[in-house]
Design goal:
Length: 157
């Protein structure tokens, strides 16, 4: 990697200086979008056993929320929203969950931008109109053949 200098520690010094500048201005890594890792209070992080129990608690609560979301997928309820809520709980403590959430946010943003593209919107509207026309034709054929009788009430076939 060419940093434009022969000094080996220049990049590290620059990163430390940037971190110190953010702390002086009151910004944390979370506000700037770069902070990965535990967001537990400092007094909890200072004690290993307390931090480990904190992580277990966060994992159990996140697991319960994700489990509730999975149950809500086939049942009535906002399943995916609850699952992502559980992932957000996990992301307060675990780097892997933070990375999964970043990836998910990036993909959702990309899909939303594509959906707002005029070509894609025209295609979606066209497909919807064609689908509705096909359904209308099928309902018309059914009504022409059987009338207003529902299929479970047909006696003579």
């Amino acid at each position: 990697m060419n940093t434009g200098s022969d000094e080996p520690g220049e990049v590290i010094v620059a990163a430390d200086k940037a971190r110190a500048d953010r702390q002086e201005s009151g910004q944390t890594g979370r506000e700037t979008g770069g902070g990965l890792g535990s967001r537990a209070p400092e007094f909890i992080k200072a004690r290993r056993l307390l931090h480990l129990s904190w992580q277990v608690g966060v994992f159990v609560v996140g697991l319960a929320v994700v489990g509730a979301g999975i149950v809500m997928l086939p049942l009535p309820g906002p399943g995916w929203v609850v699952i992502f809520g559980g992932m957000a709980i996990w992301a307060t403590e675990f780097v892997w969950a933070q990375l999964v959430l970043r990836w998910t946010k990036r993909k959702v943003t990309e899909v939303a931008q594509r959906a707002l593209d005029p070509k894609v919107r025209r295609r979606n509207i066209t497909l919807t109109v064609v689908g509705l026309a096909i359904v209308a034709v099928l309902v018309g054929i059914y009504m022409w053949k059987f009338g207003l009788v529902m299929p479970w009430k047909i006696k003579n076939q």
